[in-house]
Amino acid sequence: LLHEYRARTPRSAAAFQRAAAVLPGGETRFITYYPPYPVILAEGHGSRLYDVDGIEYLDLVNNYTSLVHGNAYEPAMQAAAAVLSSGPVFPSPHELQWHLAELLVSRIPSVQRVRFTNSGTEASVLAARLARRATRRARLLLFDGAYHGSAPPLLAGDPDVVTVPYNDLDATAKALTGDIAAVFAEPFLGAAGVIPAQPGFLSAVADLARERGALFVLDEVQSLRNAVGGEQGRLGLRPDLTVMGKVIGGGMPIGAIGGSEELMRLTAATTEGNLAHSGTFNGHLTAAAAGAVTLRHLDAGAIDRLDRAACRLADAITTAAAEAGIAASVTRAGSILNLHLAATAPLDAEQARAAATPALAALHVALLLDGVYTTPRGMINLSTALDADDLERAAQAYAHAFQRLADADI
Ligand code: PMP
C-alpha cells in the first residue's frame, strides 16, 4: 500500500523533505501529519482538493469542520478580499466585529455578548480564566478525550484539571467538588471520535454544575455548524459560556466566547477589576467578514441538507463494511462523522481508542489512493459543496477500501 502511495506522490515526498529541514517533523500542526508523509495540498475549490502532484481529491475533511461550504467558498473569500483592500485590522473596534457578534447573538439564545480571539484554543483559555474569576475557584473538570485546544489549562495532565470519562454521570458527580470553577463539555466528543452524548447526559451535567456553584461551559467550536443555534439548541441546553471557532470565521482564523451580559461584563475594558483581555489580531476583519457570510448561508435548509447527506453516507459506509465482512460502525453528529473499526459504536474515548486500529490508518491511505481525502482517525466532515454524485463516489471508495482490507490487500 505504501509502495503505491509513494509511487503516486513523489512531489509530496520531496516537498515534505524540504519542509522538514525547517519545520520540526515537517509540519506545524500535529493533526496534519501521517506516515510516511502527508500528501501536500496546493489548492482547494468547493468539494475538491489538489495536491502538488496534481492529484484531485474529494474533500471529506473540510479543514476539520471549519469549511462548511467547501474550499475557497466564493462569497466568503470575496468578503475577506474586500477587507484586504481597505485594511484588515485596526487599533479600534470595527463594525464588521459587531455585525458578526449580532449574528451570533441572534442565533444562539444563551449568547448575549461576544468576545473574539484568534483561535478556539485562545477562546477556551479565556473561558477558563473567566470561569475562575467569576467563581473564585481554580480547578476545571474536563472529559477524557475532549479537545478544547492545545494550551494549558485545557489539557489533561494540567495540575488544575480533573478528567472523567464522557457519558459517565456518576464519575462526574463525584469529581464535581467545591473547588471546581467550571465543567467544560463538548456536545459530542469531537477529536476523540465524534461520540455523541447519551440522551440527558449534558443537561444532567449542567444541572450538577449549577447546583455546586460551577459554570457549565459548552465548547461548540466544531458543533456550531450542526444547528442554527448550535448543538445547545438541539439538546435544550443553556450554557453559562459557549466557546466558538472554526466555522464562524468562514475559513479564516477565529475564536470567540459568548455568554450572559452579566458574566461577559467581566471581560470589558470599562469594568472595574476586569479580566484583562487583548490580542493584536482579535476580531480580525477577514474572519469577521468571511464568517458573517458563511453563517448567513448556513441556514436551517442548508443544515438539513447536510444532515440528510451525512445520514446517507453513514448508512452507505456501514453497509459497505458489512458486505465486506469488516466489523465497523459510524458515529455521527450532524454532518460530522467518524468511522470506527468496531461492531458497536464507542461510548467514550477509551472505547474509541481501542477501535482505532492500524487497519484504520491503512483504510485512510487506501481512500487517498482512490482520490478521497479523509482523516487518519476516521473522521469525516461534509460541506454544502458536495453533491449527490460526490457522495456516491465517496461511498464507492469506502466499499473498495473495505474490500481491499478484507482481501488483506492493504
Ligand atoms: N475546541 C474544539 C472542540 C475543537 O475541535 C478545537 C479544534 N479542533 C478547538 C477547541 C481549538 O480550536 P483551534 O484549533 O482554533 O485553536
From TrEMBL:
Pfam families in alphabetical order: Aminotran_3
Transmembrane residue ranges: none
GO MF assignments: transaminase activity
Coiled coil regions in record: none
Keyword Transferase attributed: yes
InterPro entries: Aminotrans_3, PyrdxlP-dep_Trfase, PyrdxlP-dep_Trfase_major, PyrdxlP-dep_Trfase_small
Cofactor(s) needed: pyridoxal 5'-phosphate
Keywords on record: Aminotransferase, Pyridoxal phosphate, Transferase
Alphabetical list of Gene3D superfamilies matching this protein: Aspartate Aminotransferase, domain 1 (3.90.1150.10), Type I PLP-dependent aspartate aminotransferase-like (Major domain) (3.40.640.10)
Family: Belongs to the class-III pyridoxal-phosphate-dependent aminotransferase family.
Protein name: Aminotransferase class III-fold pyridoxal phosphate-dependent enzyme
